[in-house]
């Protein structure tokens, strides 16, 4: 016969086990504590614009709300939503603060990217930050990618875990594109550099591009290769956009090519100009240290390590 004391201990033990198992199932990648590297907040050095001054509604106009420097883009059963810059740019500094949809958002894609696919449908360039929605098992992830001259068969993806919860507050997402390199930054921490030298040059974007901010249904690929599609019972999915910086070589809307000196838009930042300033020709020592931290701690996929995908690895690998 089991004593009352032993019976109570048994109940307490079983309850503790269940609690621990449930807690483990709820642990997220951004719940881990990270000591982030110290970096210069370069986003503070560039002026921000009102959304309506810099962007047009590209699709899903009924799902876009704009209020000064803030926009809310919604994905629901009817449509996603997207903004496109009014100007095209050949090199520049592009940044926005984004807050991602909360809750289960499998299959949802929030993208901040440069592209000229509409002007060059057969040989377009693209520089992507794509934020891929969470499932019940996994958190949001960061995917970066580069295409040049229509090189769609060679996806140059790299994927990272977040070191924070991107649904709870606004965070900075930045692209630097100039003649020296492309740099992807999150909260001013470089996570990837794509240099314009050596074997990388053949895959380097070279034509003017527009900046896009979008939210859309990526059910067929975004979360675990399409295993977890968008479940609209958890929607609508709202992505918030604020404090956008568009600083670069502005190309007239009537032209798709750069001719003569470019117009530096977005204010006077000549000493820190990403087009021709030496401050943006290379990463600083602190930035290199921070990027090494991000890639060691948070990167979980690189195309250059995917031997099952490529029989012959891309030249830059």
UniProtKB/TrEMBL annotation:
| Keyword Hydrolase among record annotations | yes
Q: What class of enzyme is it?
A: transferase
Record key words, sorted: Apoplast, Cell wall, Cell wall biogenesis/degradation, Disulfide bond, Glycosidase, Hydrolase, Secreted, Signal, Transferase
The EC designation for this entry is: 2.4.1.207
Question: Key word Cytoplasm present in the record?
Answer: no
User: Would you tell me the Gene Ontology cellular component terms?
Assistant: apoplast
Q: Which GO terms describe its molecular function?
A: hydrolase activity, hydrolyzing O-glycosyl compounds; xyloglucan:xyloglucosyl transferase activity
User: Catalytic residues?
Assistant: 126 (nucleophile), 130 (proton donor)
Q: What is its main location?
A: secreted
The biological process GO terms on file are: cell wall biogenesis; cell wall organization; xyloglucan metabolic process
Which ranges carry the GH16 domain?
29-241
Q: Which InterPro entries match?
A: Beta-glucanase-like, Beta-glucanase/XTH, ConA-like_dom_sf, XET_C, XTH
| Modification(s) after translation | Contains at least one intrachain disulfide bond essential for its enzymatic activity.
Kindly list the places in or outside the cell where this protein is found, as annotated in its UniProt entry. Answer: Secreted, Cell wall; Secreted, Extracellular space, Apoplast
- Taxonomically, the superkingdom here is Eukaryota
Gene3D superfamilies named among the record's database cross-references: 2.60.120.200
Q: A Pfam family for this UniProt protein?
A: Glyco_hydro_16
What's its job? Catalyzes xyloglucan endohydrolysis (XEH) and/or endotransglycosylation (XET). Cleaves and religates xyloglucan polymers, an essential constituent of the primary cell wall, and thereby participates in cell wall construction of growing tissues.
Family statement drawn from the similarity comment of this UniProt entry: Belongs to the glycosyl hydrolase 16 family.
Protein name as it appears in the record: Xyloglucan endotransglucosylase/hydrolase
The species this protein was found in: Arabis nemorensis
């Amino acid at each position: 016969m089991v004593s009352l004391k032993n019976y109570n201990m048994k109940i307490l033990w079983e309850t503790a086990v269940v609690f621990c198992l449930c807690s483990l199932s709820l642990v997220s990648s951004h719940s881990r504590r990270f000591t982030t590297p110290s970096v210069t907040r370069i986003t503070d050095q560039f002026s921000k614009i009102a959304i309506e001054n810099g962007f047009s509604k590209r699709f899903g106009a009924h799902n876009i709300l704009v209020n000064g420097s803030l926009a809310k883009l919604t994905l629901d059963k009817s449509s996603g939503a997207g903004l496109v810059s009014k100007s095209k740019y050949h090199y520049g500094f592009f940044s926005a603060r984004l807050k991602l949809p909360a809750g289960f958002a499998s299959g949802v894609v929030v993208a901040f990217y440069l592209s000229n696919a509409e002007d060059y449908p057969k040989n377009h360039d693209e520089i992507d930050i794509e934020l891929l929605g969470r499932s019940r098992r996994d958190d949001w992830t960061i995917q970066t990618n580069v295409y040049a001259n229509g090189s769609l068969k060679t996806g140059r993806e790299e994927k990272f875990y977040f070191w924070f919860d991107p649904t709870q507050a606004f965070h900075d997402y930045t692209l630097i594109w100039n003649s020296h390199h492309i740099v992807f930054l999150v909260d001013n921490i470089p996570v990837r550099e794509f240099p314009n030298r050596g074997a990388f040059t053949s895959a380097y974007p070279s034509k003017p591009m527009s900046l896009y901010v979008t939210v859309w249904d990526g059910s067929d690929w975004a979360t675990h290769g399409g295993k977890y599609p968008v479940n609209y019972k958890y929607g609508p999915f709202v992505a918030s956009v604020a404090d956008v910086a568009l600083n670069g070589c502005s190309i007239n809307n009537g032209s798709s090519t750069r001719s003569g000196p470019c117009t530096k838009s977005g204010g006077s930042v000549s000493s820190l100009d990403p087009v021709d300033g030496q401050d943006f020709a290379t990463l600083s020592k602190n930035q290199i240290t921070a990027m090494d931290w991000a890639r060691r701690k948070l990167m979980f996929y690189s195309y250059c390590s995917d031997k099952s995908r490529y029989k012959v690895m891309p030249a830059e690998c």
